[in-house]
Amino acid sequence: MKTVLKNFINGILTIVPIILVIYVIYKTFLFLDGILGNSLRPYLKDDYIPGFGLLTTVILITVLGWMSTKYITGKIIKLIDYLLEKIPVVKTIYSVIKDTVQSFLGDKKSFSKVALVVIPGTEMRSIGFITSEELEDFYSPLKDHVAVYIPQTFQVAGFTFLIPKEQVEIIDVKAEDAMKFVLSGGMTSTSKQKSEEK
């Protein structure tokens, strides 16, 4: 029975992550394919091929990106951008989405610096990510502070703390590795170390 139970647990440890990854990829594919796919499907009917909506979306985004570099179309896109930043309520939603996208894909990516911060009143430390080093424009007394995002274990939600620069230690760890370490509750690095020792 011990052998059977051990094999069963090994099966769960092996199969469940694979099934979950396939499921997430499948759901993500359906979502991205449906952005334009739901509009194209009624016209193409039986000729519609799964993935055509996703391909069309990628092509459309690429074309719009190319158009934004041209003089006339670039001016039109900048005008739309300007108008969206002036409409009440809409400007708040638009600026949050725009800043978030640029933080991941722009020239100055956020989450690229991993920080180690001390929890006040203790000797405990927490891993976070520098999201902004220029807080003076937001609130001038915070010019000597940085914004540090600290995610919670097993979820992407977290907290943003404004911490004095001298209290933040930048560590030489890849952002992806740090995120996996935090989200897994520290189990990722442990499993890697065990596999390297073997």
What report would you give on this structure?
The chain crosses the membrane at residues 7-26, 48-68. This is Putative membrane protein. Keywords: Membrane, Transmembrane, Transmembrane helix. With 198 residues, the protein is α+β, with helices and mostly antiparallel strands. The protein folds into 3 domains: 1-68, no CATH class; 71-105, no CATH class; 114-184, no CATH class. 55% of the residues lie in helices and 16% in strands. The chain contains 6 helices and 5 strands; from the N terminus they run ααααβββββαα. The protein has a 5-stranded antiparallel β-sheet with strand order 4-3-2-1-5, covered by helices on one side. A hairpin with a 6-residue loop joins strand 3 and strand 4 (158-164). The longest helix is centred in the first third of the chain and has 43 residues, at 2-44. The protein is flat.
Shape: flat
Q: What composes the largest sheet?
A: 5 strands, antiparallel
Measure the end-to-end span. 27 Å
Helical/strand content category? alpha+beta
Q: How many separate helices?
A: 6
User: Beta-sheet strand percentage?
Assistant: 15-25%
Helical fraction? 55-70%
Low-confidence stretches: none
Query: Kindly state the mean pLDDT as a whole number?
Result: 84
Order of helices and strands: HHHHEEEEEHH
Radius of gyration: 23 Å
Number of strands: 5
How many structural domains?
Answer: 3
* Spatial order of strands in the largest sheet: 4-3-2-1-5
Transmembrane segments: 7-26, 48-68
Organism: Neobacillus bataviensis
InterPro entries: COV1-like
Protein name: Putative membrane protein
